[in-house]
Amino acid sequence: MASCDVELGADASAVLPQLDVAESSARTAGDPNAVAVVRGFRGLILLRAGDVTRARSELDAALGGLDDEVEKVPVLLNRGSLRLETGEVDGAVRDFEQCRDLAHAEAVAAFRPMAEHNLGYALYLRGDLPAALRTMESAARSAPEEHAGVSLMDRATILYEAGLVSDATRAIEQAEAILVAQGSEADLARARWALSRCLVLLERFEEAARVASSARVAFERQANDAWAARAELVELEALLAEAEVTGHSGRAAVQERAHDVAERWAQPPVTVPARLLEAEAAIRDGAHQLARVALLEAQDGTRRQPLSVRIQFEAAVAQLAFVEGDRRRGLAAVRRGLDLLSSHRAQLGSLDVVTAAALHGVRLAVVDVKAALDTGRAGSFFDAVERGRATFAGVGRVTPPADAETAALITGARREVEAAQAEDTPRAREGHLQAARELQDAARRRSWQVSGGHVDAPRPATARGVRTALGRTVGGRPVTVVSFAVVQGSLFATRLDAGRQQLIPLGEWGEVAEKIHRVRADLAVLANLMIPEELRAGARSSVSRALKWLDDRLLAPLCVRGDLHVVGRHLMLAVPWTALPSRHRARTWVNSWVDLRPAEPRRSQRALVVIGPDLASSSTEAGLVAGAWRDASVLEGSRATCAATFEALRGADVVHLAAHGTHEPDNPLFSSLRLADGPLFAYELDGTDLSGATVVLSACEVGRSTPRIGGEPLGLTSVLLRLGANAVVASVGPLRDEVAARVMPGLHEGLRAGMRPGEALARAVADEPEPVPLVCFGPLVL
Question: DSSP letters of 550-605?
Fold first, then answer.
């Protein structure tokens, strides 16, 4: 009767008296097994009501009194869930593994996918995200259809922790649709809570507060006070973040409410985030003593929390230390937090997840950079910026395991893209492209399940180290390193050379961003020969003015002479730096972080030239480029397939890829070059060793990148640099075929003569009548 009443919506207050009668009857009958069954069910009811202390007592007693292994299965499942609630992750793993192994009999077979799914969640809490996703996918294959909503929701929680917040949001929205149809109010409230957390990270603070509030009300209606407290904390986090953005007050109110939540609950999953939120609000309100007490209260429980919470703790400790003037203690907390992020990412084998995980370090990096800016010291600011950027750049190259299913998905996506090219109607083309996107998404999901392989965590460069390296350069050619960073809407540049270092404010970032967008729009007009000459002339004049403005704003205050290495993120990577007036014929090269590498010995100059289909001047370009090298292999026409290109890349010293290119902003790892049998995706190149090679991409816009929320850029160029390339020459805008055919032979002749790639590019484009959007990307090789 109690079980049926629960299914019909009865709460704990109505059901527990029934269970008391049931237990009394079982004891009177002298049936200890029946007593244990009742106590196990009572433990479940208490767990759902949030009374974990009494629930644990009942579930432990039930397992101690049961002889029948079949009867133990649901109790183990429930105790494992309770242990997850209380942070006993290792105990939860043991319970779920035992439950899964016992659930073979037909009567309890339905519990096996549930146990396996929950085991995946426990592995996530332990920090092994790839294993968690693998286990959950295995569970989903055998789970009944009615579990699909909860399965999606828990998978979304893992994606959240991995930093794949947009993917997590989509999974939650799918789960919500299923749960609404099922009428599952408890699970629907949890989905709203999970969605609100994602919205905070996506900086949609007002919406996050509203969704979290609705989840809190739903939990309160269900008398689930523990989960209502969790939802209230997300609501408060959103309110605090919104107050910071808008400048409104309310920090004291957030601090008081977070303190009240922490005082009411003794469960680490509630109290630790509550104390951290209390501390953050107190720091921002100037109540430093309150913040110290809150952080002390949170410290012990933090160690058993997910990565995001542990990094949040270090960020709060660092922020408090910095505002109190203890820079040494603040830097120690920053380094602990970044070390946590680095060690976590070392377990990951997917470039997609490695870059996404940086999301959880953003707050820490912001605290570090703002504190360094307050010192006014160029070296401190440069070091703080690079600490975050190097960590966010992720681990070294990872060779993914061979996976036939992933290969089949990518091959299928390639075929769909090619099929779209052959269609005559927009609707038919879009159908093929949608099928390609679905196959690409499936390949991405499989990649998330790959654990880490070869790992070399990048070491952040320091101002002192860079200046020492610059001072050792020979040949009389000065090199200047300029690192651009945006802090609270203002652009700053750190200028380093062998003799000095400077921190230079460059004004409002919004103005600079608008000019970069203007340059990109004008370059698109110039590249389109179908546009009338009058309009193209206007664009030519406009882009010249914009490039001069950027030169005056970004480089003139820095007084750069000689070679220039530019370091920046976001739109700074979209500037055609070689086209700026002051960089005419001067070596310029760009990267998203200071990747300081020693100079490598001159390579054997084995060249690979690959020419894709439908290029107007392809044969001419191929012949001239190949002719610049003694040892050149040419793949052209039907020979220029993805497989042949992939194989030929191994061991090539100079690679020239001339093809139509596509940058995919929504799925940057599937940016591609079109070859004879379809697109060669950036994703496919992961694991290829390009150490020391120079790669030239004679294609439109494949130099573009899409930044993760954590700031790390992704695209074809960034993948090639991660694979070890010393330089990648690529276009950040449309590149006309005849321009490429004129410029590329000169570029390769310069490379053959021993010029650095940045210098060879500057010489090759120097006499072009219009700006050429080719940029040399690469590490700081001196």
Answer: HIIIIIGGGT--SEEEEE--GGGGGS-GGGSGGGTTS-EEEESS--EEPPPPP---
Helix%, strand%, coil% for the chain, nearest 5: 65, 10, 25
Rounded Cα–Cα distance for residues 775 and 695 (Å): 12
> β-pairing, 596-597 with 780-781?
parallel
- Say if strands 596-597 and 606-611 run parallel, antiparallel, or are unpaired: unpaired
How is residue 76 written in tokens? Answer: 């183990």
Measured on CA atoms in the order 560, 566, 567, 569, is the torsion positive or negative?
Answer: positive
Burial of 691 (0-12, 13-18, 19+ CB in 10 A): exposed
Say if strands 706-707 and 713-714 run parallel, antiparallel, or are unpaired.
antiparallel
Q: What is the mean pLDDT of residues 731-760?
A: 91
Averaged over 577-606, what is the pLDDT? Answer: 86
CA 111 to chain centre: 34
Question: Dihedral of CA 10/14/19/21: which sign?
Answer: negative
Say how far apart CA 501 and CA 558 lie, in whole Å: 11
Per-residue CA distances from 448 to 234, 351, 715 (Å):
27, 9, 18
Confirm if 255 and 278 have CB atoms less than 8 A apart: yes
Token pair recorded at residue 240: 């605090």
Across 453-500, the runs of DSSP E, i.e. the strands, are: 479-487, 490-496
Predicted confidence at residue 396, as pLDDT, reads: 47
> Tell me, what amino acid is at 748?
H
Rounded Cα distance, 593 and 712, in Å: 9
> Is the separation of the CB atoms in 23 and 39 below 8 Å?
yes
Contacts of 499 (CB under 8 A, 6+ apart): none
- CA gap 187, 501 in Å, rounded: 56
Q: If 0-12 CB within 10 Å is exposed, 13-18 middle and 19+ buried, where does residue 293 land?
A: middle
Residue 489 binned pLDDT confidence (cut-offs 50, 70, 90): very high
Q: Is 117 helix (H, G, I), strand (E, B) or coil?
A: helix
Report the C-alpha gap between 690 and 653 in whole angstroms: 8
Q: Are 262 and 297 in contact (CB under 8 A)?
A: yes
Nearest Cα to Cα of residue 294 among 310, 280, 314, 315: 280
pLDDT greater than 70 at residue 601: no
Give the count of alpha carbons within 13 A of 715, CB side only. 26
What phi and psi values does residue 662 have, to the nearest 5 degrees? -135, 125
Cβ-contact 776, 717 below 8 angstroms? no
**What six digits make up the tokens of 558?**
């820095």
Average pLDDT over residues 94-112: 89
| Cα R_g (the chain), whole angstroms | 29
- Taken in order 370, 373, 379, 382, the sign of the CA dihedral is positive
Rounded to 10 deg, the angle between the 307-323 and 288-302 helix axes is: 150
Res 245: pLDDT: 80
Q: Do residues 615 and 638 lie in contact, with contact meaning Cβ atoms separated by under 8 Å?
A: no
User: What is the CA angle 267-272-278, rounded to 5?
Assistant: 125
Nearest-angstrom CA–CA distance, 329 and 292: 13
CB-facing half-sphere around the CA of 234: CA atoms within 13 A? 30
Q: Write out the H or E segment, with its range, that includes residue 692.
A: none
